[in-house]
Automatic annotation (TrEMBL):
Pathway: Cell wall biogenesis; peptidoglycan biosynthesis. InterPro entries: LD-transpeptidase (IPR050979), LD_TPept_cat_dom (IPR005490), PGBD-like_sf (IPR036365), Transpep_catalytic_dom (IPR038063). This is L,D-transpeptidase family protein. Keywords: Cell shape, Cell wall biogenesis/degradation, Peptidoglycan synthesis, Transferase.
Amino acid sequence: MSAAPAQAAGCNLSTGPYQRQVEAFLNLWVNGVQSASDCRAIQAFQAQHGITPTMGYAGPLTWQTMSTMLAQRAAGNTPNRDGACPTNVGRIACVDLTRQLSWIQDGATLRYGPVPVRTGKDGTETRTGHNKIYYRNIKHWSTIYNVWMPYSQFFDGGIAFHSVDKSMWNPPGSGGCVNMTPTDAKAYWNLLRNGDDVYVYGRKPGT
């Protein structure tokens, strides 16, 4: 009689409501039934992106994260194919809250991105609207959160582009700022200047 497969620590072997979708996303055998190997793979994904509880359960938050990733991939090199971000103002940084994507364009010409971003969580949503960068600080210290905000570029009150050292898909989100990877935040710093336009639109899933 063969031994039962080893269960990862803290693994939930219940079949989740998004089992099939999660299996397909992770290139697992799609049968809609949780297994020990499924659970370990889902756990690894959750741990990578800070999704808690990290128990390998195919629940709403895990699938919401994967759905956002799929929407980002679908954007390809034409994130503004629907024309939602203005193309008549010259250089502009676009932020699509729905897809958690940002890019820089000159008119209709893509200059950088699109790149995944991490925007405000429920209760501290990143505000939508058309603004301009008004203050830049390459090594900004937040007196509100007591953290460094490298490559900060403020465009709407206390809302800024800045880098963070965590996954862009880490829920529930930021305190309102547009979080970026260090590489992308540095690129934005080099491409943008005070007075450049920023357009934020859409609605982040879960807010």
